[in-house]
Amino acid sequence: MAFKPLASFILSKPTAGFLKNVSKAQNVRFLASVGATQSENYEFIKLTTAGEKQNVGVITLNRPKALNALCNDLMKEVSNALDSLEANTGIGAVIITGSEKAFAAGADIKEMQNNTFSHCITGNFLEHWSRVSKNLKPVIAAVNGYALGGGCELAMMCDIIYAGENAKFGQPEILIGTIPGAGGTQRLPRYVGKSKAMEIVLTGAQITAQEAEKMGLVAKVHPVDKLLEESIKLGEKIASNSQLITRLCKESVNTAYETTLAEGLHLEKRLFHSTFATKDRKEGMTAFVEKRAPKFTNE
């Protein structure tokens, strides 16, 4: 689908029978594994916990009439939710997801339409979006439907992207006279290489979930009604490890994108050495030798 019809979706009234955030089959599994909504009230997102141990935080973008277009207030709520989950020692991983129709169809064009250069500069426009990429706990993007423009950028801010079979990714900003502003021109080449990134950014073309997986943008593709379930399983698997060691591992991998190979290898070695000062490293190796499951204390 071209960008123009999609933009009209974003700005139009919802059609009758608009798909709910999850299908009936998915909702049954979701309700079976997801805890109650957190006490803080949110207008544009839903915040829940998931998994048998309720150790996975789930942030669901919830602007169905706008296909989860990313307005300023929505992103502030995402930041606040991440603050809450990061402070919760019982949470070991975070999922950001949307609806079957759209993960996020882009930034809110109505909100940006009358922006000026001076307003963008003085207001440091989009700066707070980077909160997602700075989260200390691993963040999984569970993408169904459209992840275009800011939606694609939001997914790329996460550590791992799982996609439903119907997912569509793209950076169509050039079609409306601007460029990606939240990492699209910087993160995309690191995922898919310069040539492919140029093709996507300069044409505004959309790519399927299957194409995105082949390019390395997406880790795995799942059936639409299985996506959230599989993402929660991944979150649980991550959360079962030491949060302390997970944080060091995430820092080391992220550093590979920011530094030279020599600098990255040096940091990796030092972080590896630092694990020998932790109780969890000793417990993990002892449990392995004793052929039992480790009991991590995050110390």
TrEMBL record:
EC number of the protein: 4.2.1.17
A GO term from the CC aspect: mitochondrion
Key words of the record: Fatty acid metabolism, Lipid metabolism, Lyase
Keyword Metal-binding among record annotations: no
Molecular function terms from GO: enoyl-CoA hydratase activity
Similarity comment: family membership: Belongs to the enoyl-CoA hydratase/isomerase family.
GO annotation, biological process: fatty acid beta-oxidation
Organism: Dendroctonus ponderosae (Mountain pine beetle)
Protein name: Probable enoyl-CoA hydratase, mitochondrial
